[in-house]
Amino acid sequence: MSTSSADYPHRITITICGDGGCGKSSITLRLVRSQWTHEYDPTIEDSYTLTRKVDGQTYHLSLTDTAGQEEYRGMWASSNLRSDAFLLVYDITNMNSLGVLQEFNDLIDIEAETRMDAWERDRYQSSSKKKKGAQDMGGGPVKPIKIVAGNKCDLQESRQVPAQVGLEWARKHGCGFMETSARNTVNIEETFALIIRRVVEARRLAQGGGLTVDVGPGPKREESLGSNAALGTRRAVTAPLSPLPGGPEKVMSLEGNEKSGTARWKAFWRKLACWKT
Fold first, then answer.
1. Residue 145 sits in a domain of what CATH number?
2. For residue 242, what pLDDT is reported?
């Protein structure tokens, strides 16, 4: 997967992982087909391709919706770790589903170390051949991007995982954070726009010759937002630390057109519903 992404800079591979029943397939189907179903059908592995336009650039996304059941996780590790980005999904009505993300996160971090080791090895080999006319390697390894999504945020009355707990877990593990609702279409497009922007930024940093850094939300970002509204702060910390050219964060619409004023306000109030205390 990584080789293909390198050959096609506007292609991004994304693996969606998490415990069984947390809504991974619902998020995927909402993005790909604008559909939602309440029926739970355990997935082994499904793949989808689609395009999205972000900041004026069209990106080709390859999504892999993976199994959450423990018996399939060995297969997950062997086939999906080369992705550019990972969406780690938990269910806000199930505290255990957040803990399950630790196993997936550990596997992804091992993959990041493997990429670093491979890059160091290739750099050493390139340096040893320099006398034979080989050129120095440019750039550095691109670390996999990690975004945590607390799904089913429409089920506030059944919430077990406070938004702050999910955010703190994401920050501790170097991940971006969103709360989503596949049922009510809350933060679905925005989550994948965030993934795209962070992959693009990670590639840009790598091409610049420096190592990529974890671009999860951090204290400096929160401080820059001021101390006005707690809800606004929680929502805003999921923005990339250094916005890419093309202006501030924009919503990716399915049609590629900007929403009307009325629809935009409705979408805004739907998002606030996820942050009720």
1. 3.40.50.300
2. 37
